[in-house]
Design goal:
Low-confidence stretches: none
Radius of gyration: 24 Å
InterPro entries: Leucine_aapep/pepB, Macro_dom-like, Peptidase_M17_C, Peptidase_M17_N_1
Keywords: Aminopeptidase, Hydrolase, Manganese, Protease
GO cellular component, one term: cytoplasm
Number of strands: 20
GO molecular function, one term: metalloaminopeptidase activity
Structural class: alpha/beta
Mean pLDDT: 97
CATH superfamily of the largest domain: Zn peptidases
Family: Belongs to the peptidase M17 family.
Number of helices: 16
CATH class of the largest domain: Alpha Beta
CATH topology of the largest domain: Aminopeptidase
Length: 462
Amino acid sequence: MSDFAELIQPDRDQDAIPIHLVNSDTFDDWAKGLSSGQRAALKAQKFDGGGYQVGIVPDGDKWFAVGGVADPEELSSWCLAKLSETLPEGTYRLAKHSTGPALYGWLTAQYRFTRYREEENPVGPRVLLTKEVKKIDRAVAEASADCLVRDLVNTPAEDMGPAALEAECEKLAKTHSAQLKVTKGDALETDYPMVHAVGRAATRHHAPRIMHLTWGKESDPVIAVVGKGVCFDSGGLDVKSAAGMKLMKKDMGGAAHAIALAGLIMNAGLKVRLHLFVPAVENAISSNSFRPGDVLKTRKGLTVEIGNTDAEGRLILGDALTRASEEEPEFVIDFATLTGAARVALGPDLPALMTRRDETADELIAAGKDNDDEVWRLPLPEAYREWLKSDIADINNAHGNAFAGASVAGLFLDRFVGDDIDWAHFDTFAWRPTAKPGRSKGGASYGLRAAFHMISARYAGE
């Protein structure tokens, strides 16, 4: 992961290259202050103030940059991202505008995933100066969390199995002086039977486990963060097609979000008693794979008939949400790459949000809009609960029709969350199919900043 700590620095009037911001409406008036040669230089670059355009303008023996944005007076997280991606190595400052939320995109634009291949002709760091010193640490923390999700999701399953997720949790615990308990082996089968059942086919190389990290004063409000850690999903005996399996290294994207969110909460020192749960498995195929038609025991005591072995994420989350509920939390939030139905409904960029309480949904939606991390609410309709009925068990893990797949999966999870607990569920893609400024193709966080700012507002008076 990129080290962002040096990429934004306090502005103490040190030498820096100016960046001017314009849009298509203000460009002509702004350009009147330029020399004919400078205007010609911008014309040669086809710069007219359009969004994400970048121009280089000679100024004697120096030069300055100009960027096209939607509104120079109200920057978004991404307004400086294209500049950060394309400008040469150097130190920069905005000529007339405050940096505001655009600090975030300046950082994420310089993310590179180089674990397996060094970047060709890498450009050195582009450093941005700002007078808004108090915003630097938060921007660095949030960008680092986003790029941690990218790193974890981008890493192939052979190097990002359950043991690797455990190592990430260990690193997190060490950094923040938290406590970590890992359950695996016979204890996992006893205490978390669905986690064990889903992961048992991969026991030899990628043994299943669940991580439970705790942090904060016991007297503070209890919250729980849960993340689906299916490190690779073959579909099990209901095996996926080759095309369906191609991106399944990203099926631990929920765990990546949960780990990143826990890090943000601890880094901010929020007044909470935090519980992080990461059930980690590989849904493999072997002689001891769980089967369609099997009935699994659960930590909660319910029995689950397996309608489809490829609906395994909700199984491991069921045990984890049960355990989280035992802490009697004020709030539980989970992240999971749970259903293709959510992507059919909302596409890759909008995570599907489901909540029990309207006010919680409103808080998360508002936090997402305020921080350029929009989410979209889907319902948990009571009428669809009957679709999960089983003839021989308490519940089935997959319904028999093609309707409302994301909501029905949410209703399954709802059975494992304690009564009257405020609960939010994100069905996220964790992957960006095409690059955008500040947002590289590949692993991606969706809903992470929305969740963090919502929790911050609740527990730190933000």
